[in-house]
Batch of 2 targets.
Target 1
Amino acid sequence: MSQTLNLTLKVWRQEGPDADGSFETYKAKNIPDDASFLEMLDVVNEDLIDNGRTPIEFPHDCREGICGTCGVMINGRAHGQEKGTATCQLHMRKFSDGDTIVIEPWRAAAFPVVKDLVVDRSPLDKIIEAGGYVTAPTGTAADANDTRIPKEAADSSMDAAACIGCGACVAACPNSAAQLFTSAKLWHLNSLPQGQPERYKRTEAMVETMEQFFGACTNHGECYEACPKEITLDFIGYMNRDYIKSKVKNRKLAGQQS
Amino acid sequence: MNKRKAVNLTSTVSPQKSGHKPLRETKKELPFPLNLYQSAVGKKWVMAITGLMLVGFVIGHMVGNLKMYLGVLEHDGSAAYDMDIYAEFLRNLLVPILPEGVFLWILRGGLLTAVILHIHSFYSLTRLNIASGRSYESKQDWLASNFASRSMRYSGIIVLAYIIFHILDLTVGATSDEFVHGAVQSNVVNSLSNPVIAGFYIVANILLCVHIFHGIFSVFQSLGVNNPNINRMKRGIATAVSGLILVGNVSFPVAILAGAVEYNECDPKLSVAEQVEENCVNSSGHDSDSDDDSHSESEGY
Ligand code: HEM
Ligand code: FES
């Protein structure tokens, strides 16, 4: 049986990037406990609109944990208290009647607030852009099973590819480092035969772009706890290894890529 | 039917300028291997390697200090503190390939370089991290980080202050009139019999071990050593090494305050003959009648 909850929300409201923000308190009444967190915000927004007030701007799109658009700090935790779920997959039954919920946008120098809970995460796109292309054969498409890949490598690559780029790792990191994101994107390709030709060039470029925007890892491990896809910290180790290799072997200059 | 008042539902904000512009530009690349130190990942390697060198030194230093428990031994026909014999041994490392004291200075040079690089990489990465962060207005709930990992910069700074004091106190002898170069055992006991110095020593060593705990845990990942067999043992290795150093180092001031370390009650400036005359048995060691000053600079306890 579904029940309803009455909650107190403390939500960060900020008019625009240069405006000062502050927490506003709202009552969320009669929230069905099978609503998702975002649906709860929808209900609150309906109410605000009915009263002629500006609704809370929050990031969302797919609402099924695959696009990486949603993401806010909920009671001091990125994506809330449930492990391995995005904000859109967090259900109100995980809260109790009468709870106070504090909602704040991601914070990092590279993620300026656009409005309320929405931040600009485009530096993550810059890192992806820096990764460039993978060399692919031209002509007719090769058979998918032409390239043999060990099961372990395929699994590892798939684990890395699960990253939805939501930025929770940066948001949870005391240093605002983007190591987990960048290393997942790198390992996605670096672990596969198709990713080998540009492996070291890609590693160098993506790490250096990352460092233009984000802090440096000090191995706290908060990113892993926050990650809705439970991307493993191991990828950060692989990235550290590949980055030094890319420098030591200076493959770029020698014209040999792998 | 629609009682809703008109509200502007669209965001009034145009895309951000600051988000697209790097917070910092990449500098012109220096030749290998200097280019490693231009990136944060490379700096972290330097921090990890120099950190490991320092951990190696701290372990060696602790083991060396255990000699203070052995008290007086026979050495070259006369009685001497084992500690002082050890200090002399350090000065005589690689003699006669190198003149006395030279290899010790080479080791010190290496350590000093490691300390400088460790602190410089710490300084520049910490500045980077402070510049990259924005603190939350609400309380952040930590799940994985711990006291050690969050206090690295503070434990590091206190350890640095301690290292400087320690060198002035027991290597240079700047903090006490009773200090005698080469008389290591009595210098250590004189210094650590002071409860204030002993207290500082204990606090600093606890912080050092807190620092080393996260340091060792961190070092594998920083160096890209990632393997399930090792990952499983990381926490254990960090606990064991930092625990060992903690027990060893904290035992010294405790034992000295408890009077459990043998030491010379005489003024160490007295010659052996004078000491015998004053009936305070243990001499501080080496043949004090030789008047070459080769023992005059002594450390290495
Ligand atoms: C005997 C003295 C010291 C030892 C044995 C030592 C050891 C270590 C080790 C092994 C690491 C791990 C490197 C890594 O993360 O990969 C480390 C990290 C670090 N050290 Fe030290 N260190 C010492 C002194 C200092 C001093 C004097 C400072 C600062 C003034 C300092 C600041 C740091 C910082 C900030 C880190 C980064 C830790 C992190 O990743 O969160 N250390 N140290
Ligand atoms: S809205 Fe797409 S992941 Fe949450």
Target 2
Amino acid sequence: MAGVSTVHRPDSAATTRRGEGLIEFLLRASAAVGIVTTVGIITVLVVEALFFFVEVPPVDFFTGTRWSASILPYAFGVIPLVTSTLLIAFIALVLAVPLGVLAAVWMSEFASQRVRLIIKPILEILAGIPTIVYGFFAITVITPLLKATILPDLGTFSALSAGIVVGILVLPLVASLTEDALRAVPRGLREGSYALGATRWETVRRVLLPAALSGIAAAVILAMSRAVGETMAVVLAAGTNPQLTLNPTESVQTMTAFIVQISLGDTPTESIQFKALFAVGATLFAITFTLNLISAWLVARYRNVYE
Amino acid sequence: MNEREPVTKPSVSQIGASAPSGATEATSASSKNPALLLENVSCWYGGFRAVREVSLAIPRNKVTALIGPSGCGKSTLLRSINRMNDLVPGFRMEGEIAFEGTSVHARATDVIDLRRRVGMVFQKPNPFPKSIFENVAFGLRLLGETTGIDALVEESLRAAALWDEVKDKLDQPGLSLSGGQQQRLCIARAIAIRPEVILMDEPCSALDPKSTLQIEELMRKLIRDYTIVIVTHNMQQAARASDYTVFLTMGDDRAGYVVEQGETGKIFTAPQQQLTADYVSGRFG
Amino acid sequence: MSSQTTTRRKVANALFGLLAFLAIFASLVTLVALLIDVVARGGSSVDLQFFTSAPSRIPAKAGILPALVGTLWVTTLVAIMTFPIGVAAAIYLEEYAGRGRWSRLLRINISNLAGVPSIVYGIFGLALFVRLLGLGRTVFAAALTLSLLILPVVIISSMEAIRAVPPSQREAAYALGATRWQMVRRALLPAAAPGILTGIVLAVGRAVGETAPLILIGAVTFVTFVPVNPFEDKYTVLPIQIFNWAGRPQAAFQEISAAAILVLLVLMFLLNLVAVILRARLSRTIQW
Ligand SMILES: Nc1ncnc2c1ncn2[C@@H]1O[C@H](COP(=O)(O)OP(=O)(O)O)[C@@H](O)[C@H]1O
Ligand SMILES: [Mg+2]
């Protein structure tokens, strides 16, 4: 080689002038707000929950089956709250998953471009309606409707009513995430199936749904996380009666409903009830955070396969 | 700052003094004082070598055409000159590129300043979603110019042979122009900041024949003031519009290398290499 | 293949299409039912007096003035705070951070934050803004809490808008000797502006409807005056007012609750309209 053999490795910082260091610092600081928030949330929840666990042993909290924060004798076993939360989430998913997946399939495989342009905004509107409005809908329409038709003995508050309304609320989420997953299935797979003479339904059932499975699973898990963390609709529809039951016609209290109940009253901040708020909040955060991580992992998996 | 002053770096001035080993005698006459000098340039994308040991002298105030089959590294080479490849993660270069005697990759070379002196026109016209006027004024505003912008914009549009077509609608979006007009707008935008060299990467590949001819005419005019390097896949274009031609092709490892370079007339009528003869006559590529 | 199986396959296909259509239809019906219910129940209560009065123990005299003003206060402050930080974070993640570990962590973190239940933000706001920083039960504390809540949404939508700008635009600016910040300021942001602004308006719309976190940080449910000083005064917002009225057994309160919902939905509809118009107007000149 004649003369020179310098290796040039581009340094992307070279396009930044000296005065721009401050700008980059500000941009970076803004991006770090997210990290600070996460750390802050975790710190607050852990520290405040520890104050609670000083008074109530974690074992009693996590394995206790009685919750009574306002009526003596007090009991702080979180299982009734968690069970109620999961019961409502389960009812919601039973409703939202089949309907949401079907809706997604219809939008991505059956609907014409024109129809899709009408349907998508409708789902977006549904997704954008405040959850307090859904709560109102539950007590003014869903519960009376259930009473008038199949369950004449249903009370004002019930897990069923709450589950149904939360199902309506997460349906758009299931539909749009499932649609994303279906869209990520390569065109070739579809065409291969049609070329073999399969009908649309057969293509959907044998090719698309299996191929989009991890994406759909991600959608379901994220919807579950939403349902677990849902507050206003559940407070209005399910009531504030902390009991351990799997009967959907009973009034129950979810974790979020307990948190709201405590903060609505004049509960002194040093009281054990107020500290319980943070312990329940920490539990709620841990559950939803885990679900979100699983969902993100599943999405990353299908992206990896097809991109 | 005086970045424009050549940095005296022994190795670089050495290259400037003598023609590169790879250059043929055809270019040596004008390469006594070339605008750009490439010495043993190799380029990698990650582990893949896209260009192998290219040495070239780009003469001043001439049009130099880079021709060769698709994927042989023409764009890579061109984009190494104004360091646009710095934006590509994993890109790496070996060898030297000297611009007016100064290595473009030297630590003391400011890439911002380099790109202001070496303009570029892209394959697909890429005007900004701004008015015609603001497109041309873009580079001037980057330089912080506040006075005389109107005059410079007009001058640049005239130089790009676009003035008559747009003088009554300077405030309309650049994207409302036709493809050929958009490309001339991009040329006007590039020359508004008075670069010394203009790099053009297949500037006519998205244009109709009439616009293509307009741009070729324009290039012939521009070389009074500028040095032009153009990548083209169009043989006729290289033959019509360029003074010097560099023919590259790929080896078995898909790394591009120079087969032959010289005056355009010679490359097209009396090529020294069989490969060149086959390519310019359309037998492969 | 017998014609019988062919028929069966065709029927299965048609049935499935019908079922899928019904699924969509069900959500449509729900939306319509919800809107009809709200309008039928609350429509007649929406009059001038409803907008100009404070809440009252007598439903017929009650109004939403303090709640409406509180909502406007909170919304404005949220928009002012999330806009610069959200866009700056998105610029950093898309144009500066590269693809290394640190930037991956930032990205994952943002999308995780978007999935944290809003009530948890309320708990955080209560501990940090209301108690630790001593901001108290003020509009300012509410705005800070809701800003953190919608920030991930703003960042994600801004990142998408920035990513949608073709790379050729960046190259054009760099080739003219733009520094990185000049490229961002003069080429990237103008081109991404329609998408960024639309995303922010929609995210702010989400903040308008949030209820749970504000209950935590003490939006008071019964406020009879209009908040003037966002750093001092007690306040309430529309969703809280709705919640307060909806929870009462009397039908008359449910009616004004529905009326307040109507106002809230119209407000959100207007914000969406702004987003649509903004997108249409700003992107008219941008057609890649
Ligand atoms: N950004 C990139 N990353 C990885 N490989 C690239 C990139 N750009 C180009 N290449 C590869 O480098 C080789 C040369 O490409 P290019 O310079 O664009 O060729 P030409 O312009 O002659 O058609 C090709 O094999 C191409 O696939
Ligand atoms: Mg090329």
